[in-house]
Amino acid sequence: MGKAVMLQWVIGVLALLGVSQVDAEDPYFYYTWTVTYGTRSILGVPQQVILINDQFPGPKLEVVTNNNIVLNLINKLDQPFLLTWNGIKQRKNSWQDGVLGTNCPIPPNSNHTYKFQAKDQIGSYTYFPSTLLHKAAGGFGALNIYHRSVIPIPYGYPDGDFTLLIGDWYKTSHKTLQQSLDSGKPLSFPDGVLINGQTQSTFSGEQGKTYMFRISNVGLSTSFNFRIQGHTMKLVEVEGSHVVQNLYDSLDVHVGQSLAVLVTLNQPPKDYYIVASTRFSKTVLTATAMLHYSNSQTPVSGPLPAAPAFQFHWSMQQARTYRWNLTSNAARPNPQGSFHYGKITPTKTIVLANSASFINGKLRYTVNGVSYVNSDTPPKLADYFNIPGVFTMDSIQGLPSGGAATVATSVMPVSLHDFLEVVFQNNENTLQSWHLDGYDFWVVGFGSGQWNPHKRKTYNLVDALTRHTTQVYPNSWTAVLISMDNQGMWNLRSAAWGRQYLGQQFYLRVFDPVRSLTNEYDIPSNVLLCGKALGFDP
Fold first, then answer.
1. How far apart are CA 259 and CA 253, in angstroms?
2. DSSP string covering 167-201, please?
3. Which DSSP category does 521 fall into?
4. What residues are paired with 74 via a beta bridge?
5. Sheet strands side by side (includes 476-483)
6. Is the dihedral of CA 358, 364, 365, 367 positive or negative?
7. Over the stretch 150-195, which tens digit does the pLDDT of each residue have?
């Protein structure tokens, strides 16, 4: 596919989505989405799901780097609702992040317009509901950012582009799941795995041609392994990073993560299994789809391609093979490797230990002994309007400590332009997945046991990739480096939604005392106000 054809294809996709465009250097696209309940038979049982414009999953957002998105979201549910844009950095604009620490939720039978830019980003992302357990009912979708025509990509244009939203699924309603968590029970094991909201899907292509598969884990709690019968996958992009293009037979994808692979249809013409199966679980749940060659006369056959025989160590070894392509650019023309992150001395080291605790007789998840509770007033609004008593900046410390677990609306202060070393220490027997809004970070190290400063000798300080969500293996640690260059209030959370809901999260307040539009956009004129912020004039 030539460049002109590719550009026409992207424009055509946008036109098909029914969005209107205003011609400008960085064009604006306008959307109206209506969120409703609907009934779908997902795993053979009719159940209530959340639809966006009557779609499950929701509409696919296809934009180009630096496009501006103006999206009017109409909430027709019986509960307040928000969408968050997973991996979109919202440069200088945490006002649009769509989480309860920055935004008041949209009340039932009301609406709110998001306004944000896909600034200096390319790659495969998702959006999903950040409120309550709405994510368990749907409301999620793909958000793909294509490169500008003047910026090259480090691979040939694919002959087609498939998006696969893969995740665990529960037959239980989101309200019942929420009640179970509220009662102090952990999230139960899911009932199945879906690919694009279905148990059966087909992806068709022509023999000899190459296709991009954008794969995201949109589930609540479970890692999966992805593979295609008889085909290898060339990894090209991970959450906006162009990576060294290694070939893989299968790939582990953890909750909240996204990646893109190229697959060449170079096998005899027939139909082949596409498989996603749960990892690290006693019971293995499997979803299958079909890769159909257009000239195939032979139905899919044979056993499903096997999952990796080995568990956490194998997965950690695979994760270490993901490396930045230093000579490739990403969304901007300068090569990724021109930023020598490994030569910067961190200004601060933060060690974050997750744990399960009982507080007032009920299960809560904590970070350094503190379990986050949402306030009626978003900390971002309380900070802006100088409203006291909403959040604390001394409850969560930068190192784990002993003592009884506590609850707080916990915010950790960070100075704009700090360069942080953050170590996620997982002393539990379950895999963790950590996500940071507003940023990506260099994943420089994985290791077993307890982290200590001597582990820095094992860091990859040359070509570690950047991403927004990283896994932490059981009884292990993961180290990341973060350039704190995006002012705002940013959610650092477990991507496992039951753990997030029960407190495994907090906010980073990235701040410069000099208020300047150079550092952060002003509060939107259409900001929703709630709690103690009601009555203030934005």
1. 8
2. EEE-SS-HHHHHHHHHTTPPPPPPSEEEETTBS--
3. P
4. 34, 111
5. 406-408, 370-372, 362-367, 348-359, 419-426, 476-483, 441-448, 466-467
6. negative
7. 999 999 999 999 999 999 999 999 999 999 999 999 999 999 999 9
